[in-house]
């Protein structure tokens, strides 16, 4: 299977990367940008695979079948470093370690490729440490940074990178992928693609996980069920608890997987007692999992707010009579009734309130406080200006 499989609706980008990988002299630094769901991380990994693909005709096909492509897909290629952070920001020590790695010659490959996901999470100090390495990289090293937009990285970095801009794929393309690769029927695939707002990863999860669909339904119907201040406060608490439970479930599953993998690598049976000299390695996994928890909750809550944004976009579409299919088409009747209680101005103000809540979360405002303020804005008859 090609490493480009998930870059649906991005044919122009795929061709651009194939030409660059096959040129023999690709730019030494790249910046992949695009909104959540655009596939920027997949594109960066595909490019890393294509650069070292073992196929000769064409050299940059990124076949997905050769040993090099399989190693990149498994995140175990010795010359391709895939970096991400579960913390709020990258640490300077992490960046310094990357710079040291960049100096090493590739092992059994044409290029040493360092892919940095969420480059927008680098502080200014960390970015300045990285700057010199990008300005004067070794001849065998390529940097590939990922961020939502060019504005999310310092101008000194982006001015030294070749820009690759991605967009969110169309609904039909996402639905087709879910049908052909994941075995969903057409109705399931269309629903998942539409309500995920064309985010492939979210669409797959919604299609496969009934509990994820149930939680989403609870979120998107919140504004439709609020009738009093006490109900708004209760809804805020429920939303935060729901996102915390969602994040905790994901984190627990990941920790179990990492612990099982560590046991296998150390030759320990699943139920075997951990020897004292190895306990520090398992403790480190638990500490990393704890650090990931804060970001996991923030990310889960942000996803819920994106779903609420879709509700108010649908309401605005109904108010303006656009006639287009709603993101939450299955709730059309309920949304039509809700739209009758709002003016177009109030609907726009609701969108502004959601955006303000998303900003507050990134500024370390307690999630419950931010959600209580937001839910109060959704009360019937309340001015949202």
Automatic annotation (TrEMBL):
Identify the Pfam families for this entry: DNA_pol3_delta2 (PF13177)
From what superkingdom does this record's organism come? Bacteria
Q: Name one GO biological process term.
A: DNA-templated DNA replication
Domain named AAA+ ATPase: residues: 26-169
- Extract the GO molecular function terms from the UniProt entry: 3'-5' exonuclease activity; DNA-directed DNA polymerase activity
Q: Which PANTHER family match?
A: DNA POLYMERASE III SUBUNIT DELTA (PTHR11669:SF8), REPLICATION FACTOR C / DNA POLYMERASE III GAMMA-TAU SUBUNIT (PTHR11669)
Q: What's this protein's name?
A: DNA polymerase III subunit delta
Origin organism is Nesterenkonia jeotgali
Taxonomy of origin reads: Bacteria, Bacillati, Actinomycetota, Actinomycetes, Micrococcales
